Amino acid sequence: MMARMAQQRRPSRPTIVDVAREAGVATSTVSRAFTRPERVNHHTREHVLAVAERLGYAPNPAARALETGRTNTVALLVPDITNPYFSGVITGAERAAAATGLTLVLGDTQENPAQEAELLRRLGPAVDGFVLAASRLADDNLHAAAQPVPLVLVNRASPGLACVVADFDSGTQQIVDHLASLGHRSFVFAGGPAESWSGARRWVGLRTAGRRRGMRAKRLGPYTPTLDGGPAAADAAVGAGATAIVCHNDMLAFGVLQRLAQRGVRVPDDVSVVGFDDVFTSALISPSLTTLAERTEEAGRRAVETLRRHEVHRPEEPLVLVLPTELKIRSSTGQVLVGPQ
Amino acid sequence: MMARMAQQRRPSRPTIVDVAREAGVATSTVSRAFTRPERVNHHTREHVLAVAERLGYAPNPAARALETGRTNTVALLVPDITNPYFSGVITGAERAAAATGLTLVLGDTQENPAQEAELLRRLGPAVDGFVLAASRLADDNLHAAAQPVPLVLVNRASPGLACVVADFDSGTQQIVDHLASLGHRSFVFAGGPAESWSGARRWVGLRTAGRRRGMRAKRLGPYTPTLDGGPAAADAAVGAGATAIVCHNDMLAFGVLQRLAQRGVRVPDDVSVVGFDDVFTSALISPSLTTLAERTEEAGRRAVETLRRHEVHRPEEPLVLVLPTELKIRSSTGQVLVGPQ
Does ipTM exceed 0.90? Predict the structure, then answer.
C-alpha cells in the first residue's frame, strides 16, 4: 500500500506574469490577448498565445475576474453544513445557479462569525455574490460585507439587505394552536445560539402566540443546536416540569428525544416535543417528530434568483421575501394526561 | 414587505486594470506595488496605492493567485452534499484546513461527472488543491484534472493518485460474518450508482466473503442512493425472496425500511437490512440500522493533510491510505426464522 507520490514533480502553474516575462510584453497585453483580442496587434497576440501554450498557461477565472469583475460563480455560506436543514437550501440554490449558468460553491461557517467573515473575505474576489443562510454576523459586519459584493440573506433580516425568510409569525402560531388544542397550558422553548436571528424570531413568535392563548412560555438555554445539545435541554425541561418542549431545531429535538428515552420519560404521554425545520430524519424516527416545515428549497432558489436580479439592476424587486411555513403534525405531540397516571 | 433594493447603485468593483489605467502604469506595476513592494520605485508605489485607495481597489486572492500561484484555499467536492455521510468528511477536512491556515470551499457534484468536471475547471484556478470524495469521474479525466492542480481522492482509488479509502475488504467480511452467524444462507445487495468506486468495492467484497461462507449473493439495481431509491430496491429484494438486504448506503437503507414497513414486511423478523456509512439517523430510527461505520472524519482530515504534504514535496508519503471500518450491530438484523411462522 506504500508508494511514492507520482505527482510530486509537477512544476508550479505558470502565471500571467511568467507568460508576460517570457513573451517580453506587459501582463495587461497577455490578458487582452485572451479576453479582448481585438485590442491587441495580431502578431503580438499570436506570439503571446504561442508562449502561453509552450508554458502550459491557460487564462483562468481568476484572470477573467480581474479583467471583467465577473466570475459566474456564487457562494452559499451556511452555519452548519452537517445539519440536513441546509440540504434543501443548497439544493434550491444549486438548481437556480445551474439554470442561469452559474457555478455554486459552498462554505461552512461552523456557527462562528469570525469564520464567516473570513470566508467572505477569502471568497469575495472569486465570486459574483453571496447567499448567506442564517448568518451569525452582526448587522454592521453584514453591511460592510455587502459593499464590495452583492449578498442576499436567507432566514436572517438586516435593514437595507435583500432577504428570504420563513413566516415564523404564522409558524409559531400554528405550533401554539396545536399544543393548546391538545390541552397544554404552558410550554418551554429550548433555545439555540444567541446569534441566531431565526431563533430570536421563533421565541418572539412563540411567546406572543402563547400570550394570546393564555399559555405560560419559558425560554431555556441557549443550547448547542445539534444532538449534543439534547441532554442539557431535556434535563432542564424536565426539571421545569414542562408538558411540552419546543426545540430550536430538529437536530436539538432528536437529542432531546434520545435523552428523554434514556430517562424513561414517555413521548408524547409524559411530554410533547416539537421541532423546527422538518429535516428528513423527522419523519423516519419513532416517535416521528412534529415540526414546522419551511420551504427550504424554494428559499435557496429565490435567494440565488434575487442575487442574479440584483446584479442586473431591477430595483422593483422586493427586499424581503417571506415564505409560508407549515406544521407537520406527527407522533411526538399528544394530549396532556390529566390527574395521576 | 416591498421595498427598493438599497444595493443597486453600487458601482462594479474596480479591477487592477482600472487602477493601472488611472495611475498611468502597467498592471504588473500595480501588482508588484501590493505584493513585491521592494521591486517598485518608492514614489511609484505611493502613487499606485493612493490611486487604488481612491478607487476602492484592494488586492485580492485572485490577484495573489495570479502572482504567486497560491491561494491558501482548498476545495472538497462531494457527489451529494445532502447525504449526511459526507458531513464527517467535511468536518474532518475543515479541521485539517483550519489547523494549517487554509480555507475550505465545498462543491456538490450532484452525482454528475459533467458537473464534477465543471467544478474542477471553474474552481481550479482559485484553489491550491482538491479533495474529491467518491469521485464519479473516469480515471482518464481524473488524471487530466490532476495535471494543473494537486488532488487527493477519498473513497476512490485511481493509479498514481493519492487516496484515502475505507477498508471494505474487512468491512464486507464483517457484514457477511454477522449475517452468517444469524443463520442467513444468502443475501441480496441493493447496488448504487454504476460510477461509484466504493459501490463496486462493496459488491466485490460481499461476493467474495459470501463465497467463502458458502452463501449465495445477488446484486440488484442500480438504485438511486437516496430515500427515493428505496421502493424499487425493497420491492425487488422481496420479489427475490431475500432474507437479508445489504444496501449501497444508509440513505437507500432508510428508503428500503420505509417501503418494507408500508408493505407490512417485518424487520428483522421477515428480513434483515444492513447499510453502509453509519450516518447519524441510523442510530435514531426504529428499528435502528445495522451498518458499516467508516472513519469519515479521519478520512477528510487525512486527505487535506495529504494534499498539504503533497504540495510541500514529501515523497515518502503513502499513495494509498486505508482506514479501518467497523460494523455497528443494531436492531435491523436478526435470526432467520426457520419454517412456517
Answer: no
